[in-house]
């Protein structure tokens, strides 16, 4: 496995979102259109780095770009995230089971704490 060459980051959405900064950009673009300058300010990163990440996201179809004068406005193409969602959803049953266990333990601790409080009040 270690000797295998890596897939290009522009080969598909999975490879593109493997980089945390690109996931940050996707999050920032969720539900709104932003310019490169807006993204640079929000991320605290230099413009060339943001532009590089946007190029990768654009090449795999995760973002759309619209030119308005000298500005380029980027927006999320969320439909292209669906394959990632579909894949991750196969593991949802594990998360639901873990959340149910956490909820059960929390409720048991809460019940024990309330009971202990009642016992302390009754002893006074």
Write up this protein.
The chain is mainly alpha-helical and 124 residues long. It folds into 2 domains: 1-90, Winged helix-like DNA-binding domain superfamily/Winged helix DNA-binding domain (Arc Repressor Mutant, subunit A, Orthogonal Bundle); 91-124. 60% of the residues lie in helices and 11% in strands. It contains 6 helices and 3 strands. A 3-stranded antiparallel beta sheet has the order 1-3-2. The chain is elongated, with a radius of gyration of 23 Å.
What features would you highlight for this structure?
11% strand, single chain, 124 residues, Arc Repressor Mutant, subunit A, mainly alpha
Query: Which band does the percent of strand residues land in?
Result: 5-15%
Low-confidence stretches: none
| Overall form | elongated
**What fraction, in percent, of the residue positions are helical?**
55-70%
The N- to C-terminal Cα distance equals: 67 Å
- Rg over CA atoms, rounded to whole Å, is 23 Å
Biggest sheet overview: 3 strands, antiparallel
Number of helices: 6
Order of helices and strands: HHEHHEEHH
- What class, by secondary structure content? mainly alpha
Task: Give the second-level CATH assignment, the architecture of the largest domain.
Answer: Orthogonal Bundle
The third-level CATH topology of the largest domain is Arc Repressor Mutant, subunit A
Strand order of the largest sheet: 1-3-2
């Amino acid at each position: 496995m270690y000797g295998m060459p890596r897939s290009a980051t522009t080969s598909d959405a999975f490879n593109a979102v493997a980089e945390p900064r690109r996931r940050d950009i996707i999050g920032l673009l969720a539900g709104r259109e932003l310019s490169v300058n807006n993204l640079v300010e929000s991320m605290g990163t230099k413009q060339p780095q943001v532009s590089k990440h946007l190029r990768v996201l654009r090449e795999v179809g995760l973002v759309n770009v619209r030119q308005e004068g000298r500005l380029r406005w980027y927006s999320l193409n969320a439909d292209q995230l669906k394959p990632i969602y579909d894949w991750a959803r196969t593991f949802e049953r594990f998360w639901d089971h873990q959340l149910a266990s956490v909820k059960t333990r929390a409720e048991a601790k809460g019940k024990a704490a309330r009971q202990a409080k009642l016992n302390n009040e009754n002893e006074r």
